[in-house]
């Protein structure tokens, strides 16, 4: 009896000590993403990548334990803002990261930045954050929205395309993507459709595809992330536009859509081309480690969302290690992150003063890999060390 | 105006319209005859899509997938009626809303547990995956044409069932006076179960038909069910004819709005403003229609005769 009591009290004692230690030496990282609604597949891929990174770090950044708090924004700006407030005010996290959607990030940014907390976008890159609303505590491990479509506009020029039709969802990023391609494409834009987006997004594009076909455009440029992308490609094929109206995409055909399309035999997507800052076959040491360990753990190729989420954790790690775990030294942490001195999957890059990466953009193509699995492969480099156009509106030094 | 494009957009509108009719028909049957507000009707649409997707991969053919999924969805409908809906008939509408909202959560979570969160893309056989040339210049995806034909066929079948058979007579009688029907010795409980299962099958077929176009995904029904409610409010609750006409009307308004509104807006505003506001306004058009109908004719355009 006595022995039993003793062991219980001992256990209790040990557990209180370990909690105390954890409180003293932990870095709290909030990660806001979408885990419910059909867009939840994207959030799951990011969550997998973040958890893989934490596992590879052995649960530690320097001498601090990682306390990762993942929140679901339900694909809605108001819920994203609520969850961000909870992370900042209640959990008192050191970093708020994640954010797939530009409109969710726009709704949540003020809460984080007003509290002096670091904000790291693992995907969304709306133009105001890169320009007028830039902030010294904001960093991105992805891109500014306009950059990838700007690279695509350049590709279209190189291919000699004279006219295009544009389709994108009607929200912040959709408009940025359309603006991006319009910025660099020298030919004529014969038509543009912005379709309903959000929880009840439009998934049937019959009317728009008929318009695009009748417009006489030489090619079609689209941006449809998540499940809308798969739906679009199927309808594009069903409408018989393949070969008649070549498809150029950004953030539409990815490792999330491809397995489903392959399973259903939609061969039309093979050979389609897109621009991106990254591809699974990008030849850097960190990317090789990331792609092979991701495939081993989860049995599929990581998406670019996953790559960005993975980089987010290594960026934070570089800041924590630079101050030797003293998270009160914010200026030094900021300086460390600004130098982008961490092993990124994209290789070496630098940061602009608005916290957006200055990086390469590649043209990639959908191919079957050695095992017959559909993936994307880099064809060529479109832009070297490309910076977003909004940095000129950013007033910080 | 380009008449070829207009005709194609008309067909696209018809295709959306018949899908809405399949959903609204079941909703109208349950709401009009059983006086049951069923928010979970969209879940049966989702169930149809997922069951059909699985069976398509299992049998290797979309046609077999649909044929086998129809009895499966009927069973899902019957079991749902037996376990939950049956206990709601005597309750208030608020209880209906609460219970069927709960059912939505149960259905969504069950689908998540069985099929995962990623959704399923459904392949079509080659002969449905192409396009047909209706006449010069008018080229239309074969499968969308099949949807229109299937929908019209089902509508005709329902018309015959409701107006020219004994079951139809009971359905109509039930719609006008339920107590009298059961007083005449009709097993109203059995009739209700069958009507509910029929509604489930119609919703399920709509889900099966849409799955090769978009995909089977969680919550797909919760989005379209709102539009289906608009259809039965506009058409008149409990009326098959009303549901059909309103569904086609709303399908056409939605599609033509998406096609031409930005062009119209560009006549009197900047092209930037037109591009942004047109999709927002075209999403509102059907609700504007509903508001107008409710203001001028609250009972709907084609209410069933004699309700008592």
Walk me through the structure.
The complex is a heterodimer of chains A (397) and B (308). With 397 residues, chain A is an alpha/beta fold. Chain A folds into two domains: 2-143 and 283-355, Rossmann fold (3-Layer(aba) Sandwich), CATH 3.40.50.2300; 147-276 and 361-390, 3-Layer(aba) Sandwich (Rossmann fold), CATH 3.40.50.2300. Chain A is 42% helix and 21% strand. Chain A has 13 helices and 14 strands. In chain A, the strands form two sheets. In chain A, strands 7, 8, 9, 10, 11, 12, 13 and 14 form an eight-stranded mixed beta sheet that branches. A six-stranded mixed beta sheet of chain A has the order 2-3-1-4-5-6, with helices on both faces. In chain A, helix 2 (40-56) runs parallel beside helix 12 and helix 9 (227-238) packs across helix 10. Chain A is globular. Chain B has twelve helices and two strands; from the N terminus they run αααααββααααααα. In chain B, a hairpin with a 2-residue loop joins strand 1 (131-135) and strand 2 (138-141). Chain B has one domain. Chain B has 308 residues and is an all-alpha fold. Chain B is globular. At the A-B interface, helix 2, strand 8, helix 8, helix 9 and helix 10 of A face helix 1, helix 6, helix 10, helix 11 and helix 12 of B.
Please report the first level of CATH classification, the CATH class of the largest domain in chain A. Alpha Beta
Helix content of chain B: over 70%
The profile of the biggest β sheet of chain A is: 8 strands, mixed
Strand content of chain A: 15-25%
Which shape of chain B, going by the Cα principal axes? globular
List the quaternary state of the chains: heterodimer
The topology string of helices and strands of chain A comes to HEHEEHEHEHEHEHEHEHEHEHHHEEE
Radius of gyration of CA atoms of chain A, rounded to a whole number: 22 Å
* Overall shape of chain A: globular
């Amino acid at each position: 009896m006595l022995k039993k009591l003793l062991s219980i009290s001992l256990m209790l004692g040990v557990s209180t000590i370990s909690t105390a230690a954890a409180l003293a030496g932990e870095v709290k990282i909030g990660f806001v993403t979408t885990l419910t609604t059909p867009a939840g597949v994207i959030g799951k891929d990011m969550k997998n990548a973040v958890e893989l990174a934490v596992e590879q770090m052995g649960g530690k950044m320097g001498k601090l334990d990682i306390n990762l708090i993942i929140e679901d924004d339900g694909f809605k700006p108001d819920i994203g803002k609520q969850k961000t407030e909870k992370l900042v005010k209640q959990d008192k996290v050191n970093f708020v990261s994640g954010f797939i959607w530009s409109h969710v990030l726009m709704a949540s940014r003020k809460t984080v930045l007003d509290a002096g907390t670091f904000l790291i976008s693992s995907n969304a890159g709306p133009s105001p954050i890169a320009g007028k609303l830039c902030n010294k505590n904001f960093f991105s491990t992805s891109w500014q929205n306009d950059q990838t479509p700007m690279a695509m506009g350049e590709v279209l020029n190189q291919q000699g395309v004279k006219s295009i039709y544009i389709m994108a969802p009607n929200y912040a990023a959709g408009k940025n993507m359309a603006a991006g391609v319009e910025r660099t494409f020298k030919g004529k834009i014969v038509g543009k459709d912005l379709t309903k987006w959000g929880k009840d997004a439009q998934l049937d594009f019959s009317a728009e595809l008929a318009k695009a076909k009748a417009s006489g455009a030489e090619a079609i440029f689209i941006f449809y992330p998540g499940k809308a992308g798969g739906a679009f490609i199927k309808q594009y094929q069903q409408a018989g536009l393949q070969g008649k109206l070549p498809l150029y995409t950004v953030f539409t055909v990815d490792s999330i859509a491809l397995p489903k399309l392959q399973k259903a035999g939609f061969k039309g997507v093979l050979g389609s081309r897109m621009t991106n800052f990254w591809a699974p076959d990008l030849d850097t040491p960190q990317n090789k480690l990331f792609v092979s360990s991701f495939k081993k753990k989860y049995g599929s190729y990581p998406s670019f969302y996953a790559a960005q989420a993975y980089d987010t954790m290594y960026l934070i790690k570089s800041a924590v290690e630079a101050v030797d775990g003293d998270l009160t030294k914010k200026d030094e942490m900021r300086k460390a992150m600004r130098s982008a001195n961490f092993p990124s999957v994209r290789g070496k890059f630098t940061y602009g003063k608005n916290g957006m990466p200055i990086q390469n953009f590649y043209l990639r193509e959908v191919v079957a890999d050695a095992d017959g699995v559909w993936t994307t492969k880099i064809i060529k480099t479109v832009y070297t060390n490309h910076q977003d156009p909004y940095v000129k509106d950013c007033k910080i030094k | 105006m380009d008449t070829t494009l207009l005709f194609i957009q008309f067909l696209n509108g018809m295709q959306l319209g018949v899908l809405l009719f399949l959903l609204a028909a079941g909703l109208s049957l349950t709401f009009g005859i059983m006086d049951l507000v069923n928010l979970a009707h969209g879940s049966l649409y989702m169930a149809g899509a997922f069951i059909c997707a699985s069976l398509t991969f299992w049998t290797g053919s979309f046609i077999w997938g649909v044929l086998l999924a129809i009895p499966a969805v009927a069973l899902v409908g019957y079991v749902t009626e037996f376990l939950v809906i049956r206990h709601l008939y005597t309750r208030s509408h608020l209880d209906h809303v609460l219970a069927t909202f709960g059912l939505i959560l149960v259905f969504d979570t069950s689908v998540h547990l069985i099929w995962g969160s990623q959704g399923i893309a459904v392949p079509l056989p080659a002969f449905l995956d192409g396009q047909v040339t209706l006449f010069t210049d008018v080229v239309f995806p074969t499968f969308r044409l099949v949807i229109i034909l299937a929908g019209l066929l089902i509508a005709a079948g329902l018309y015959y069932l409701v107006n020219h058979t004994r079951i139809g007579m009971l359905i109509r009688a039930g719609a006008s006076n339920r107590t009298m029907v059961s007083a005449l010795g009709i097993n109203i409980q059995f009739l209700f179960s069958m009507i509910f299962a029929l509604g489930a099958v119609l919703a399920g077929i709509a889900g099966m038909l849409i799955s090769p176009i978009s995909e089977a995904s969680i919550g797909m029904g919760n989005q379209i069910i709102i539009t289906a409610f608009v259809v039965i409010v506009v058409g008149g609750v409990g009326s098959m004819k009303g549901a059909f006409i309103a569904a086609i009307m709303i399908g056409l308004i939605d599609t033509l709005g998406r096609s031409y509104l930005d062009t119209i807006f560009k006549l009197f505003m900047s092209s930037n403003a037109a591009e942004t506001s047109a999709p927002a306004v075209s999403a509102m058009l059907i609700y504007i229609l509903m508001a107008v109908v409710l203001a001028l004719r609250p009972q709907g355009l084609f209410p069933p005769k004699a309700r008592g």
